[in-house]
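Chain X:
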Amino acid sequence: MHARMTTIRTQPGKMEEALVIARDSIAPHAEEQQGFKSLVALTDPESGELVFISLWETAEDLEASENSGYYEEQLGRLSSVLAGQAAREAFEAHILA
């Protein structure tokens, strides 16, 4: 299993809107991607920080989602709520429970 962690900061008062965009627009598109397993959002309402963790079956599936333009397209859906640039990292994931 592999994971991508994307960290963004939302504009003041835009956290809920970002979550709605992720749930209603980004998640359905993610589910159509080969090897996609899950999308989790971690929030810090005080700072406006939002961390998305997407799980992928293989490293190739994760890379394909980036190389195809899919990742940038989905990040673009959040442009109206972003404050600054997104940070992206990839990891090997281990499900423990």
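Chain Y:
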Amino acid sequence: MNLIQNIVKNKVKGRKVLFLFILSSLVYAVMIFMTIPKLIQFSNGMDILDMMPFGYSYPYVTQLFTELGAEGRNYYLNYQIPIDMIYPLLFGLSYFYIMTYFLQKINLWKSPFIYISILPIIGTLFDYFENIGTILMLQNYPNLNPTVVQLNSFFTITKSISITVFFIALIIILVVLGIKKVSKK
């Protein structure tokens, strides 16, 4: 806990938090509005692996990569993955700082609640594991290894769980902050 407190001590400023949030949101918007729809177009409507929070199976990945075709798999490797290698870092940092910022606002950043702030970092790590696994699968298609598919699905699920738990905690913290603000008035 002291390590996290030392990292954020006097470094979590509103402008920095806002800047990181805007930057990560812009990169996310590029993926949501440009690269992911293009991939879904290539795949005839199938969801890409990043967008499947409950995981996926070997037959699904095989079908997805087949539907994508050579052009779609190339697009996945050369457009979606490079952007998705930038986004997790921005996401992890911005939401780490967002949580610590709000924990400071309600005077809980020196409590065990500070550990909630590392959930986006955990999500970031598993997003990178997922991206590396996706690269390996795309490069080895059609010779997909079922173990790699299963492991990658685990990375996707773990990423999704850590991010979901984080956002639930963030909503609770924001509600507590709102209640504190209203009760002061």
